[in-house]
Amino acid sequence: MEHRIEKIKKQLHSHSYKLTPQREATVRVLLEREDDHLSAEDVYLLVKEKSPEIGLATVYRTLELLSELKIVDKINFGDGVSRYDLRKEGAKHFHHHLVCIECGSVEEIENDLLGEVEQIVENDWGFEVKDHRLTFHGICRQCQAAAIEEDVQKATP
Amino acid sequence: MEHRIEKIKKQLHSHSYKLTPQREATVRVLLEREDDHLSAEDVYLLVKEKSPEIGLATVYRTLELLSELKIVDKINFGDGVSRYDLRKEGAKHFHHHLVCIECGSVEEIENDLLGEVEQIVENDWGFEVKDHRLTFHGICRQCQAAAIEEDVQKATP
DNA sequence: ATATTAGTTTGTAATGATTATTATTAATAA
DNA sequence: TTATTAATAATAATCATTACAAACTAATAT
To answer: What does the sequence similarity comment in the record state about its family (chains A, B) (predicted)?
Structure first.
């Protein structure tokens, strides 16, 4: 934990930004809830628990800054809210999402699914790929199970 | 053109919705500007040229309806605006985007890049894939050329 | 120590996209 | 024709996000 904070502090410094108490509090929340795909509002409320004097605009600015420095990914599942994910240490951008269209759950998967696909894009379209966003929409395991359950119920009334 | 409108009309009817004049005008705009990734506002302004009495809320409702019926794809490039693309006839969901981080241009590519990747997701995560969104962020051909141009300028002042 | 400066934060106002509401109109059924 | 329902227009309301002005902080120069 402290180690990662230290690292982020250095990243900020190398761009002549400072790790102010507000920024540190924000980063700590992101670290604690690493897999949660928090919205700015979520982050704000969580930071407020420990640092009640922080302002919403500060949280937005901090998240924007972290996103510019590629410390967090700003992602969008199409529900009108941006979500912010701390990049995992060592992780490249092999970071995809499974969004369930039944229950709305979001699972995160980590796998280099697109290595050769990026090659194809570079070769066939002359587009220099820096990053990608890949989201699958479908039915999660739980909802599949629930659907089968329901069918059984109907069959044996 | 008329053929596709007729088809959409049937799709609406099969869900007991009607192809009202306003809805038809909206669909016509989407057909005319098929590759343009229009925002709701864009669509509204274009529809207004031919049907000045239409309301913005109607356009929103129509686009939402078409999106629910999978006649259009509602997509989001993270710039705070939803964009609406008519699904191409016969096209499956092999429909990806190349977003340039320099000039902001969006190119659309059509290619089944993810056939086997979807298989992997289904097998390894038990997630039943219905659809996906794949966006590449990087430098388009034009901006690459421009960058090289600039370097030449610097080298020979 | 004091003044200066740049960077940061706060609280709030403003903006822009989208959604909800309400009254009206058109289409359909009885 | 009358009653019912669906769809629309105009506008108000909402929600996420950004802009702004004033106050504050920390570092640096005097």
So the answer is: Belongs to the Fur family.
